[in-house]
């Protein structure tokens, strides 16, 4: 019966698997008596099953690898996004800190500039006050000196007598070796180009007098006129 069933299964592929199952579980069946074609088909089916199983295993492994790769790439993407976000936050904090430092530096420079301007203004005011005080003091000295020389203006010509010629206040200060009064007269608009009766300017007079003097008494006068 089984031989007939097996031989029949060779002709009808629908019952071949059943024949294979019976043949595989029947211990009393002598497979050497089974038709070679049946054995060949059985081996072919076994090979196909193994190949299908292997292919399925390969596909499953490839799918797992693909999923693992996708998961790894997704983790990398998330980590990269997190890293970029952290870098952006750090950069923003750094830029904010730098902006605050620049603002503080600008405020410091502005404060220093204001302090410098205030100091310069105060110094200028002090200089102006000192200059005004010095000018007032010099004006007082000039008034006293002009009065003592019987002079009315800093550019008034004074006659020294019928045969002594005429001079200006600067010439008088030069002859007296009074460098301070020369400076005061010049500061009060005395004309340094005025000439005496000998046609000498105050500087020319000082140079001629200095040439005859070896003590250097006219050096300060010459320096004031030059």
UniProtKB/TrEMBL annotation:
SUPFAM superfamilies noted in UniProt: Ankyrin repeat (SSF48403)
Region (Disordered): 61-99
Pfam families: Ank_5 (PF13857)
Superkingdom of origin: Eukaryota
Keywords assigned: ANK repeat
UniProt ANK repeat ranges: 165-197
Transmembrane segments: none
InterPro entries: Ankyrin_rpt, Ankyrin_rpt-contain_sf
PROSITE patterns on file: ANK_REP_REGION, ANK_REPEAT
Identification of the protein by name: Uncharacterized protein
């Amino acid at each position: 019966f089984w031989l007939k069933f097996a031989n029949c299964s060779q002709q009808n592929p629908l019952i071949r698997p059943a024949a294979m199952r019976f043949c595989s579980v029947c211990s009393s069946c002598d497979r050497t008596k089974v038709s070679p074609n049946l054995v060949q088909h059985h081996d072919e089916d076994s090979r196909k099953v193994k190949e299908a199983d292997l292919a399925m295993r390969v596909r499953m492994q490839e799918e797992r690898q693909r999923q693992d790769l996708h998961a790894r790439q997704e983790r990398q993407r998330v980590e990269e996004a997190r890293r970029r976000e952290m870098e952006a936050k750090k950069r923003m904090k750094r830029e904010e800190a730098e902006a605050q430092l620049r603002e503080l530096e600008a405020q410091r420079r502005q404060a220093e500039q204001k302090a410098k301007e205030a100091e310069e203004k105060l110094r200028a005011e002090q200089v102006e006050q000192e200059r005004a005080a010095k000018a007032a003091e010099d004006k007082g000295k000039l008034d006293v000196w002009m009065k003592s020389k019987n002079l009315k203006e800093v550019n008034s010509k004074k006659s020294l007598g019928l045969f002594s010629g005429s001079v200006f206040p600067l010439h008088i200060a030069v002859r007296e070796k009074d460098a301070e009064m020369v400076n005061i007269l010049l500061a009060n608009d005395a004309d340094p180009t005025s000439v005496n009766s000998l046609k000498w300017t105050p500087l020319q007079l000082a140079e001629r007098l200095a040439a005859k003097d070896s003590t250097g008494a006219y050096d300060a006068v010459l320096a004031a006129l030059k």
